[in-house]
Automatic annotation (TrEMBL), chain B:
InterPro entries: ACX-like_C, ATPase_NBD, Hydant_A_N, Hydantoinase_A, Oxoprolinase-like. It comes from the Bacteria. This is Hydantoinase/oxoprolinase family protein. GO terms for molecular function: 5-oxoprolinase (ATP-hydrolyzing) activity. Residues 500-671 form the Acetophenone carboxylase-like C-terminal domain. GO terms for biological process: glutathione metabolic process. Residues 5-179 form the Hydantoinase/oxoprolinase N-terminal domain. Residues 200-487 form the Hydantoinase A/oxoprolinase domain. It holds the Pfam family Hydantoinase_A. It comes from Vreelandella rituensis. GO terms for cellular component: cytosol.
Length: 657, 681
């Protein structure tokens, strides 16, 4: 073995450091490639997994470059949990598994495999990857039980356990794990694929040890973390110091009735790092939309990383970014035994977007308004297209709009901030597998929040159940009430929520989270993904830009007038002949300018009754009046309206001259 | 009797010309600057510079960037799309993913047809091919009239599930053709009858928008060549590693995109074969990027997951190449936390490396090679003079001083990082296929490949490096090595064990008829036609399918199923013998054989000797070595040397580091043998 000639006084020479830093990244990405190649689960294949190399203390040295955002900053917690449980009893050839959300995990579906890397009899690090298993047991197929209030109905909780002992596969343990899922052979395949992938990383690290010496590799593991911390701290040097805060909301806690659930985020920059405080957030909710400490940290790191996109992820980043998430028992620090599987639609999105908002003030060149909320629609039951009873599971998520930005419109029809690599499924593939005929999957007009720079457009997706039996529908989303907001004077986009049989006498608004609603053959359903919030005052958007949006059908002629005060004459739409009426536009803009502050003070009950009478539509109610209703019945939600208007003043009307 | 075969490979900066004389078996190469504003000009310039008499040309091959550039710049004549009601935005929604996962300001580029030019019509087919809603003929006719008023003549018709039933798409096409005389209408099922709406629609749309432009270009060039006396069809290289004639290029213009990348990979495969390697890595390193290709078991990987830009898939089979942002012009810099980084930013051609003396102040890999004397100061036979002082100054100021390194050590540090990054990229491509690059040979070409090849190979643990005779125009040589080739496919879903083999044969026959028809159209004689069947299968319930070859005998399906299990195990590391296997697609590769250059080996000269024309001090492993400089053109086959040595030629420089040996083989390749660490001891 080579001596550590590339170190002087414990400091690596720059070439060795750069080469090893990049080699660590490659060793982790090799692990990811191996998983993509060998996994069984379609969800993992859709890139819902992550990989990391940790050091001997469990700190992350490098996380995969293509990893899903939602796993970021949780892998070191899980590695440390294994260390706590097994320290002194870890042997070469061991592989451990864990998914425990109360030990830094995400949700039960995400199962991590962790392998120690030994040089002689010393552990120098751990190779780890975490993949989303298609099912992990619990009350419902896919293990997304919206009604769960504790983890017992969500599936199998895996505290740190050993699955290989000194290279010997513990088939009894593995059998116990996979037998608690609905697809044991698939789960067993993923278990092998993930464990095998950790061996790929181990092999790479040992190759590096062979080439550079153990001391050098171990020093580089530490130096890679120090390097990342240094980048963050150096980047902060040119930035203002101080404290900022914001508040975002989840729609409701059904146990407490109407009223949005606050998540408070404070940010402090003091020259020593980036410090967050979430301790003022609400108590845990009665649904599964809670976040345990692992995912709350993930949201904090991923939200912050969006403003430092080129910085590699490791524990150096986690040292520079600290957080006080308050006492256990809150919606952002749920703790045992609260159900947490829906964290991704709940607190996760609120924390990330709140962090976007705070940093937008500090780094205006990367500023962005709120993005649409992650959403999953699940329809499960018997497929009536065949004689035999086949169970089907239509498991669907959508792309949507991201917020308007400092210099350009928001990105339309884009994967959620939760994981920008998560691909939406082709309709033609879904139709082969499920008795659901999709009637539309299209960009929805007027869905982008108005602003100087418009929010990206959301998408509308609807379908009909062709031949089903014993079928139910569930939905995991949010922001039906805490509508995707604009900043710097920009306006909100549209509420999330599912409609059943819209436009018929059976029409029903099911809301943005619900579960086990019975549906029959012939029922139709439709839902939007929200657009992004607007950035800047919509009255300052260039009329020519509004005109282009009208020609492309991103904005309608009537909404060009109400949202932007731009009057467009429709001359001959067949050949895109539209024209701006400059004079009337000036007047319309003056009129809006003169009244818009008072609209936000209008008596909410009046607005609600005009909505019920069909005189105002959803967009008028939320964008112009800042009023929140039950969008089905038109019932006023008083407390939510008060909360929403308060936020809208702060984010929108305070910026209007 | 015409006896010249000419390949003209138009790249972004240069157009390379390769001329082979089939009577004398001689090769000649030349280079002219590309002319992006009028791409044909460079082709004609190349013919002139190569002193080619077109009447003497038997076969004229051409690789072009016309299609690629048009897609990237979105500069093509206006086109429209007609689609199923409710699905106007399939090509804009895509699969929603981002290429850059973290930068919220880095967006995926927009669709090839803007929303205002996409129109819906009432119709619907379901997954089984049943017409749920017939095409609303009146609506369709009104739409056609509207399109006519809009002056659109190029139209793609893309309906949901049309792969399962083409009827509505075809009816829509008829109506459009009736209402818009002279309209150029294509259907998604006509271009690519495969499942998944975004893949199919986008492929059809890309093909449609390129139609008028590529047809015009190809026709003009074909006319020019004919006028000059060339009697045969122009052969256009496509991304699948074959060529097609202007008749077919008109129908499938999108297949011309990325043709240059395929040419390099084909050349690498040829060289590997020539040198007796079944497994090889092609490292084609240019000014701003490096293309990496893999040859395994004598075959290049073909993929259907590719596109010119992220998010815009083109689902025709394409040779798989990974392009990374590392080239001669990649910039070295120290980041804010003090790390020495290399690329992916590049100095490009303007200002170029510091040594170009055009205002570039940041050091590049080229500057580092020059500062270490690996590269001489005069390139391309004196056409380009490099300024070594500028290179040294940039390295000293930007890298050496901040890191407290001597300039030579700093330059070596830059190259070490660059080589390690390239090695990492090769590792990633290899594992994606379950391969270990250490069993491979490295074929180094492109302008800068031979400068870095030996050190990249050492980094990877690869013992053999091959530098072909003309590394700078290797891609053009690849153009001479292709056959006419078409790739056809159709959806076919059935359980593999229970499939009706007669029906399967019938379907293959219909593909074969269509293919034979295409080749006949292109003037290929029946004796030169080779048809290869392929079948995609998957384990029931899986999303990932795998294509395997299929023969035509009685047992062919059974054999294909077994091959599927084996191949699945090799590629994905598991097989499931108890799981039902499903047939998913049928494929046909139709090849019209074209004559290939015959390469006769040179005689190895016994005890071959050659004298260096110069010596200079070159920096390796922390010190300056007195190093001989050879002129490659005078090195005889059989000649051997021990590094350090530098071998210069018009289009490239080969570095032979200390502790390696190099020899000239009977094909005039340079073979470098690396002594690996394990062997030193």
């Amino acid at each position: 073995m080579k001596m550590a000639h590339d170190m002087k006084d414990g400091v690596l020479d720059p070439v060795t450091f750069e080469v090893l830093k990049n080699a660590f990244a490659t060793s982790v990405d090799l692990m990811s490639e191996q998983i993509l190649r060998t996994c069984y689960s379609f969800v993992i294949y859709s890139r819902d997994f992550s990989s990391a190399l940790c050091d001997a203390k469990g700190n992350t040295v490098m996380q995969g470059s293509g990893d899903i955002a939602v796993h970021v900053g949780t892998l070191h917690f899980q590695c440390k949990a294994v260390l706590e449980e097994f320290e002194g009893d870890i042997q070469q050839g061991d592989v451990f598994a864990i998914n425990d959300p109360y030990r830094g995990g995400t949700h039960l579906n995400d199962v991590s495999f962790i392998r120690p890397i030994f040089v002689a009899d010393e552990i120098i690090g751990f190779a780890q990857n975490k993949g989303h298993w298609a099912d992990i047991g619990g009350n419902v197929p896919g293990s997304f039980d919206v009604n769960a209030s504790t983890h017992f109905s969500e599936g199998l909780r895996i505290t740190p356990i050993r699955v290989w002992r000194e290279g010997t596969f513990l088939h009894d343990v593995a059998q116990l794990l996979v037998s608690n899922t609905r697809a044991p052979s698939q789960a067993l395949g993923d278990l092998h694929a993930q464990a095998e992938a950790t061996a790929v990383c181990e092999r790479e690290i040992l190759r590096l040890v062979d080439k550079y010496s153990k001391e050098t590799v171990v020093a580089a593991m530490q130096e890679t973390q120090d390097y990342v911390e240094r980048i963050v701290l150096k980047s902060l040097a040119g930035m203002p110091q101080g404290e900022w805060e914001t508040i975002d909301y989840m729609d409701a806690d059904p146990a407490l009735g109407e009223g949005m659930v606050p998540i408070r985020i404070k940010l402090k920059l003091d020259g020593n790092g980036i410090h967050y405080d979430l301790s003022g957030s609400a108590p845990a909710v009665s649904t599964f939309l809670n976040s345990a400490y692992g995912t709350t940290h993930s949201a904090i790191y991923a939200g912050t990383k969006t403003f430092f996109p080129d910085v590699p992820l490791n524990s150096g980043f986690y040292r520079a970014v600290t957080a006080n998430i308050g006492e256990e028992g809150s919606v952002v620090n749920a703790g045992w035994p609260h159900a947490v599987t829906g964290f991704c639609s709940g607190p996760y999105e609120k924390i990330m977007n709140g962090i976007f908002e705070l940093w937008s003030g500090i780094m205006p060149e990367r500023a962005m308004a709120c993005a649409f909320n992650l959403e999953y629609l699940l329809i499960g039951g018997n497929d009536g297209r065949t004689d035999t009873t086949t169970y089907f599971m239509w498991y669907d998520w959508m792309a949507g709009g991201w917020g308007g930005r400092q210099t350009k419109d928001g990105s339309s029809a884009t994967s959620p901030v939760f994981g920008t690599g998560l691909a939406v499924q082709p309709v033609e593939g879904q139709e082969r597998l499920n008795p659901v005929l999709t009637m539309c999957h299209e960009i929805s007009m007027d869905s982008g929040g108005p602003g100087r720079f418009r929010g990206g457009c959301g998408v509308q997706k609807g379908g009909v159940l062709t031949k089903v039996d014993k079928t139910v529908m569930s939905y995991c989303c949010d922001r039906g009430r805490s509508v995707t907001w604009g900043v710097n004077g920009g306006l909100p986009s549209v509420p999330h929520g599912v409609w059943l049989n819209k436009g018929t006498s059976d029409e029903k608004y099911l809301g943005a989270t619900f579960s086990n609603v019975s549906v029959q053959s012939g029922d139709t359903f439709t839902r939007p993904s929200a657009g992004g919030g607007g950035f800047g005052d919509p009255l300052e958007r260039l009329p020519e830009e509004v005109l282009e949006d009208v020609i492309d059908g991103y904005v309608s002629v009537p909404r060009a007038e109400c949202d932007y005060g731009v009057i467009i004459d429709v001359n001959d739409p067949d050949v895109d002949d539209y024209a701006i009426d400059a004079e009337r536009t000036t007047k319309a803009r003056e009129w809006i300018r003169a009244h818009r502050h008072e609209w936000l003070e209008a008596p909410p009950e009046d607005i609600a009754s005009q909505y019920r009478d069909g005189k105002l539509d959803v967009l008028d109610v939320i964008r112009r009046f800042g009023v929140v209703l039950d969008w089905g019945t038109g019932e006023l939600l008083k407390k939510s309206t008060q909360q929403y208007r308060e936020s809208m003043r702060r984010r929108s009307s305070d910026y209007w001259a | 009797m015409p006896d010249l075969r000419v390949a003209v490979d138009a790249g972004g900066t240069f157009t390379d010309v390769c001329i082979y004389n089939s009577s004398t078996q001689e090769f000649r190469v030349t280079k002219v600057p590309s002319t992006p504003n009028n791409p044909m000009q460079a082709v004609l310039d190349g013919v002139k510079r190569g002193e080619i008499e077109l009447a003497d040309v038997d076969l004229f091959f051409h690789g072009t960037t016309v299609a690629t550039n048009a897609l990237i710049t979105r500069r093509f004549p206006k086109a429209s799309m007609v689609t199923t009601k409710g699905f106007r935005d399939v090509i804009e929604i895509r699969d929603g993913t981002k290429d850059n996962l973290w930068d919220a300001y880095a967006d995926v580029s927009g669709p090839y047809i803007r929303r205002r030019d996409r129109f819906e019509v009432t119709e619907r087919v379901d997954y089984a091919g049943e017409i749920v809603t017939p095409l609303d003929e009146q609506e369709a006719r009104e739409l056609a009239r509207k399109l006519k008023r809009r002056g659109t003549t190029t139209i793609a018709v893309c309906f949901i599930n049309s792969y399962a039933n083409v009827q509505n798409e075809q009816r829509m096409r008829e109506i459009l053709e009736e209402e818009i005389p002279g309209a150029n209408v294509s259907t998604s099922s006509g271009i690519l009858p495969e499942i998944f709406e975004h893949d199919r629609f986008n492929t059809a749309v890309a093909n449609t928008v390129l139609g008028p432009l590529v047809s015009d270009y190809v026709k003009q060039l074909d006319d020019e060549l004919s006028a000059g006396g060339y009697a045969n069809d122009l052969l256009l290289l496509h991304s699948g590693g074959g060529s097609m004639t202007p008749v077919m290029a008109k129908h499938y213009p999108v297949r011309l995109a990325a043709s240059g990348i395929a040419a390099g990979a084909i050349a690498a495969k040829h060289i590997a074969e020539q040198c007796g390697y079944q497994n090889a890595v092609g490292l084609d390193m240019g000014g701003t990027s490096t293309d990496i290709s893999l040859i395994h078991d004598g075959e290049l990987r073909v993929t259907k997951q590719w596109g010119v830009e992220y998010g815009h898939p083109i689902v025709f089979p394409s040779i798989e190449v990974l392009t990374i942002g590392a080239g001669g012009g990649s910039l070295a810099h120290i980041d804010i936390a003090g790390a020495l980084r290399n690329g992916p930013q590049s100095a490009g051609a303007d200002p170029g490396p510091a040594c170009y003396k055009r205002g570039g102040a940041e050091p590049t890999n080229t500057d580092a090679n020059l500062a270490l004397n690996r590269l001489g100061t005069s390139l391309a036979g004196g056409a380009l003079e490099l300024n070594r002082d500028m290179a040294t100054a940039a390295i000293k100021e930007k890298i050496g001083q901040p890191l407290a390194l001597e300039t030579a050590d700093a330059a070596q540090a830059i190259l070490k990082v660059a080589n390690a990054n390239m090695a990492d990229a090769v590792r990633l491509v290899s594992i994606r296929r379950g391969l270990d690059p250490r069993d491979f040979a490295l074929i180094a070409f492109g302008g800068a490949g031979a400068l870095h090849g030996a050190e990249v190979a050492k980094e990877l643990g690869i013992p053999a490096v091959i530098v072909p005779p003309n590394p700078g125009v290797t891609s053009a040589m690849g153009c001479l090595l292709v056959d006419i080739q078409h790739d056809l496919s159709m959806m076919y879903t059935a359980g593999a064990e229970s499939a009706d083999t007669d029906d399967l044969t019938k379907q293959f026959r219909s593909l074969e008829e269509e293919a034979a028809d295409r080749l006949r159209h292109e003037g290929v004689a029946d004796k030169d036609v080779v048809l290869q069947r392929g079948i995609s299968m998957r384990y029931q319930g899986q999303w990932r399918s795998l294509q395997v070859p299929m023969s035509s005998g009685e047992q062919s399906l059974k054999m294909a199923i077994e091959t599927f299990h084996q191949e699945h195990e090799r590629q994905f590391s598991f097989r499931q013998d108890t799981q039902p296997v499903e047939i998913y697609q049928l494929h046909l590769r139709a090849v019209g054989k074209t004559p290939k250059p015959s390469f006769t080996p040179y005689e190895r000269v016994a005890n071959a000797t050659a004298e260096p024309h110069a010596r200079r001090d070159v920096f390796f492993d922390g010190q300056w070595h007195d190093t001989p400089i050879y002129d490659r053109t005078i090195l005889p086959p059989g000649f051997e040397l021990t590094g350090p040595a530098i071998i210069d030629q018009l289009d490239s420089t080969t570095v032979v580091p200390p502790n390696t040996t190099a020899s000239i083989d009977e094909w005039k390749n340079i073979r470098i043998r690396i002594v690996l660490t394990g062997e030193e001891a």
